[in-house]
# Entry
Amino acid sequence: MKNPKFTRFSRSIVFKSLLLLVVSMIVIVSIGTFIFTQRLTTTALDYNFNTNKFQLEQLYSSINNEIEQFGSRLSLLGKTSEIKSLDAIVAASYLKSYSISSLFASGETVSLYDRHDSLICDNSLLGASQMSYPIEFAKISPHRPYITPWYREANNTPQKVFAIKVSDPTLGDGTLVASFTIRRIWRYLSEFKVGQKGFAVVVNAAGEILYHPDLQKWMNGVHKVSELGLENFDGKTYESKVAHFQQLSNEESYLINYMYNSAYDIGLLSLQPKTEIDSFTAYIRFIGILLFSCAIFAVLLVSLWLLLKLGRPMNHLIAHISQITDGNLDVEEFDVGNRKDEIGQLSKAFNQMHGTIKRQITELNAHRQLLEEEVRERTKELEEANKKLDRISRTDDLTGLPNRRDMNETIEHEMGRSARTHKPFCFIFIDVDHFKQVNDTYGHYCGDLVLKTVAQTLRNQLRRYDVLARFGGEEFLALIPESNLEGALAVAERFRKQVESVSIPYGELLLKATITLGVSQYDPKLGGDRSIQMADRALYEGKESGRNKVIAWDPARTTEEDYKLAAIEMAEAAKIKKAQKRPAN
# Structure
């Protein structure tokens, strides 16, 4: 007994499938983990950016409302009777009252000027002091507050000046001026949170820092935003439409959001450290790598289990099949224990198949010889049938003569032989006279009888190498090898006389038949078909001149037009023949 044949791991479809599964899962999980972490990282970045943007919009709204309320309060204050009186004592007492002073922050002054732009009074508790406001009184409009750009006093606190016209019917117009300091909005900025460690910075269009949470460093003088690391910063045009990181002068990168209020020249920058976002994305990557490792470990365990439970039994089954293939039908049954799964069912089916093969192999050997003998007999019958079919396909049913197809092949053969031997041959085109009248008068049975009689009569007059075929209807074509026109005329005349002398009995009648014949000699320049047409033309002339005669086609009557048409036809025929012989791609 030969040793069992086991499949090598390199050829095992189970091993290859499991290997492909492991590799595929590693690739898929790797790509999935990469895409997952990248997507979550991008999502985390977008989430932080959009969250910061939303919070910045709320801060923007709060600051905008605070400034608008300041302007509205100043406008309402300018409409009070105490202010409109432009009286120094009345107005000063009113401005210094608690209800009014509580509306303004520490360091904010409110001053009232007459129509000559001279100070009347202010809200100072120590008496009126002439404040130097950076305004041009001539530009103040009575319809809306006049607002100056940001400027700084001696204490370096950024502030703006709001000014409105105060109208009195008797005293004329005055001006109410109030300073708005950045301190008023510090509480919004100090409460503003960007992530855990982020912060907000306030700038103006000129790039000056109006607020920074590090007051000691950035609020002790005039500082530019470029000192933070934002080069070429333009407060009016700077945009942060998409999430991106910007490295600042402290060598740290920040996620930046920016909004600008052109009405009050306030730009809000929110800065969240990249390290804060990176810590979150690092946690995401850790989770992704952990999931990747668990998935790969699970795939490896499943693959090993499948290899033991499926690969090894299949390998043993292959060894059994190999022994049976080598002719050892006495091999022991395939045993996998008491397994009830697919392998157990396969083992049971294999053992049943093994027994069936052993029973049927003897019967098959017994029948094989009988089948081979039967195949030989059937093959012989088929060959005979093919020969008979070929003979039928080449023979006219009615006359027993070769048909047109067979005649065409004969003509092709004779043309080739004539080209080699340079010996002439001729065509005799034959037509039964008044055949339609015979059919119409006596019926088709009589017509068939006439055709068979004429065919038999002509066949009896053929020489050994002459060929006669039914060419169609009542037309016959004879090929006369190794004969010139004179010899073919003699054969044609013999055909005519013999047919004329025959009587055809039909019932009580004796019928006579005559034929008209056209004779032409094969012309290589005309080809086979055109040479036959010349014989047909001669036959037609015989029909026109009285029938029952032989007419020869004089080669001198062949025109140049005939030769041109023949050349075209032969060229087309050669092209078609060449295309038919060309192998298909």
